[in-house]
Amino acid sequence: MELFGNHNNIIKKKLQSGPYHALYTSPEIQNDILGIMANLVRHKITSPIKESQMFSLQVDGTKDNSKVEQMVSVLCYLDKDTVTMHEQFLTYHPAHNLTAESLTQYMQECLPKQGLDPKWIVAQSYDGAAVMSGKC
């Protein structure tokens, strides 16, 4: 919370002047606050994509420090107002099964959770995901 306070005067003031028993710094409260902030960021990311109603999907995998494959999703879309292409990170997700079927299912579940219709996909790329060739 202190990190957020360094960037937001309202949070900083609350942490400095609030009663000790009401600082909202318990792990549960912090997780709730982080969840709310994450939703705000997701909304800001997906709003222009929803306006465009077309995007390309790029999916790549990489292993994290614990050797678990993480699938990274990036969307490219055209901003209609500025006629500018944008590339935007969307999400990452552990991929315990690297079959074409499991990756397709992940994408079909991931996009609607972000309020994006899979029908808006106009192009797809899967760097290093040879299992996806000809499957989607």
TrEMBL record:
Residues 7-135 form the DUF4371 domain. This is DUF4371 domain-containing protein.
